[in-house]
Amino acid sequence: MSEINRVLVALDLTAMDQHLLKYVHYLSGAFQTWSEIVLVHNVKHSFPDEVQEMLEDLEKPLDEYIREDIQGQVRELFGAQAPEVQIEITEEASTAHAIARVAREKKVNLVVAGKKVDYIGSGIVSARLIRLLEIPLLLIPEMAKPAIGKILVGMDFSKNAASAMVLGMNIADRIGAEVFCQHVYHIPMRYFPYIPTDDVSSSMLKSAERAFNKFVRSISDKRAAAVHCDFTPGKNKSIAQNIYSHAIRNKAGLIVIGARGQTLFIGSVADGMANMDMQIPLLISR
After folding, report:
1. How is domain 150-285 classified at the CATH fold level?
2. Looking at 14-28, 53-67, 154-168, 215-229, which range is the least confident one?
3. CATH homologous superfamily of 6-141
4. pLDDT attached to residue 130
5. How far is 171 from 177, CA to CA, in rounded Å?
6. How far apart are CA 250 and CA 214, in angstroms?
7. Burial of 136 by CB count in 10 Å (0-12 exposed, 13-18 middle, 19+ buried)?
């Protein structure tokens, strides 16, 4: 992905929307390249009969009330500095499919959605979007602060990791952040105690370092040569847990990972991080 300039933001009319729009306001000001923001809310008409009767008594259609509410929040946060904003109110059975459809039709190159922990809502939509979208997905937790000083890129030397690296470097250049990466390697414990742990760990570390050097040389972007990579033994944690812990220790303000790893299937790391209770924004690259 060369440049982010058309962004879709998924809204659900909960308290998360205000936080999400504040973060989008920060990003649009930092990037200065966003020509259009598409705000999407999907209305799922599965109301009880009592509620349906109340809706029929409204002075105007429900979607007009929703549109006015969203417009008010945009005016309050963005003021006169807002890029062009479109509001799309859809009525589909699946919110994730509605978002993916609008993203295709509007030709956006980034989707932003909330990553819920405490707010009402299960976060199922975000999990489905990982599988439906063919563009990057940025998940914003409710407690994430709108400030990015460091960007951590998860590294497994795959093609998707290369895309994540370039995307991370592009964002870092735009907002003046530092980018670094991390590779988590797991020692196959089933062969112990027959093989000395220290010897295997040392051998795997050297192998990972060689793989990273080869990976950097394979990327046409020369900026990659200046990116530092940390190598972490997996031990008793998953790769997702190791990446988040490393991000916390290094005070990263954004984590970037590929949607697919070396297996070419939707990665368990992306799923694991999307489902974690974490307070750092997660950008899933394509």
Report:
1. Rossmann fold (3.40.50)
2. 53-67
3. HUPs (3.40.50.620)
4. 87
5. 8
6. 25
7. buried
Map out the domains of the chain as residue ranges: 6-141, 150-285
How open is the CA angle 170-266-137, to the nearest 5 degrees?
40
pLDDT at 195 over 70: no
**Cα–Cα dist 13/95, whole Å:** 13
Q: d(Cα 183, Cα 30) in Å, to the nearest integer?
A: 28
**Tokens 């259609």 correspond to what residue?**
61
**Checking DSSP bridges between strand 137-141 and strand 110-115, what pairing results, if any?**
parallel
Cβ 181 vs Cβ 151: under 8 Å = no
Nearest to 258 by CA among 153, 113, 141, 171: 153
Structure tokens at 224: 């990659």
Q: What is the full DSSP assignment across 41-94?
A: EE------HHHHHHHHTSSS-HHHHHHHHHHHHHHHHHGGG--EEEEEEE--S-
pTM of the model: 0.88
State how far the Cα of 163 lies from the Cα of 219, in Å rounded to an integer. Answer: 9
Residue 108, pLDDT > 70, answer: yes
Matching CATH topology for 6-141 and 150-285?
A: yes
Residue 210 DSSP SS3:
helix
Spatial separation of the C-alpha atoms in residues 2 and 159, rounded to whole Å = 16
pLDDT the model gives residue 118: 53
